[in-house]
Amino acid sequence: MCLQTMSKPISAIPLFLTLALTACFKQEDPIVLPQGNSQISTCFIGTDYENNVYFDLGTNTYQIHPSDDWDIRFESDDTAWGMFINTGNNIKLYKTDLYALNDPRSDDTNYIKSFKPLIDAPEGNPFTSASANWRLFKRRGIADSLGVYVIDLSYESGSSQYKKVQILNVTHAAYRFVIADLYSTQSDTIILLKDKSSNYSYFSFRNGGQIVQSVEPNQAHWDFMFTRYNHNFMGILPNNEPFPYRVAGVLCNRNGVLVARDSTTGFDAINAGMIRQLQFSDRANAIGYDWKSHAFAAAGNYVVNQKITYIIKDTDGQFFKLRFLDFYNAKAEKGYPKFEFIRIQ
Most buried in the list 86, 138, 156, 339, measured by CB within 10 Å? Predict the structure, then answer.
C-alpha cells in the first residue's frame, strides 16, 4: 500500500534502511522535510519485500501484486521475443548442451549442475537475460532441434525443484514452449498469448504449470515499481565473475520511461531548464537499489542518500524530479520507502 501527503515542514524519522534478512534499529536524529508543492508518498513493500508496488507519478497512485506468483515471463510487443526469470524469487537457469527433453542426461541433476547457473541482468535487456537470445540456441543445421533449458526453482525441493523448458517459437501473437519435470516422460506444450496491454506475459510452474494473469498493470499506467531482484556485483569474485545478490530496489517501466541521476545540484535547485543537459537511460534499473548505502559504523544499518535526485520522464512524456527520504514507518518497521517528487515539465 502507499500513502500520499503534501510536502510541509514536519519532523521525520531518520533515514536508515536494510536489505532482506538484515535486522536493524533506528536512532532518533530528526530531519525537517522541505517546503513546497511536492508530493510525499510512502509505499509498503513488505518486511521481506514480498510485494511489487507499481507507482504512477502523473496520478500519484499505485497498484500492488505479490512478487513470487510467477517464475518466467516473456516480452509482449509484436516483434519482441525475450524471456526472463524471476530473480527476486531466487530462480536460476541452466543452459545445457541438450536438444531433446527425453535425453537421459536431462534427468541427471549432477549433469545439469555441471553447467553454470545463470540469472538475468537487471537492465531488462533480453540479450543480457539468463536465456539470452534463445532463438540461436539450436543444433547447427537442424532448425527444429532447439536447446533445452533447466529452471531451478529454489523455493521447491526434490524432483519439483527443476523444470525443463524448450522454447519452440514466437510470433507476433504468442509463444509456444514445452515444459517437463525431471524424471518424467510426460511433457506439456504451452501456448502463451502475448498480453499486448502489459510489457510481459507471465507463467508459473506451480500446480503443474499455469499462465498467470494481471501480474502488472497496463503498461501506460505505471512508471516504476518497488521490488526485489538480483543485482550482479562485480569485483568480489575471482576473474571478475559477477556475484548475484538479492536486493530491494526500484525497476522502471521500459515502456518509454527514461531516468537521469544528479547527486550535486540538489533537489530544490533542479528545474526544467536543466533537462537537455542531462543524460537519460532506459535501463530498467536506472534507479535501482543504491539510493541506499551501507552505514558501516551503524552495525548493519543502511542509509538513504537524500542528495541523489532522479529526473524521470514518465510514460506520458512528463518530467518529474524525485528523491528518497526514508525506508521505515513511525514504528521503525522496514519496508516503507518514503519519497518526494514534483513535476518539473
Answer: 86
Q: Quick one: cell of 98?
A: 541438450
* Identity of the amino acid at 15: L
Question: Worst-scoring range by mean pLDDT, 13-17, 124-128, 229-233, 340-344?
Answer: 13-17
Contact status, residue 250 vs residue 55, Cβ threshold 8 Å = no
Q: Provide the CA 307 distance to its chain's centre, in angstroms.
A: 24
- Number of CB atoms found within 10 A of residue 159's CB: 12
Q: How far is CA 176 from CA 16, 212, 309, 326, in A?
A: 46, 16, 43, 44
| Upper half-sphere CA count for residue 81 (Cβ side, 13 Å) | 14
Task: Tell me the C-alpha to C-alpha distance, in Å, between residue 310 and each of 41, 80, 261, 330.
Answer: 15, 29, 5, 25
Q: Which pLDDT score, from 0 to 100, does residue 300 have?
A: 53
Q: How many CB atoms lie within 10 A of CB 89?
A: 19
Residue 2, phi then psi, degrees to nearest 5: -130, 145
Query: What pLDDT, on the 0 to 100 scale, is given for residue 141?
Result: 67
pTM, full prediction: 0.86
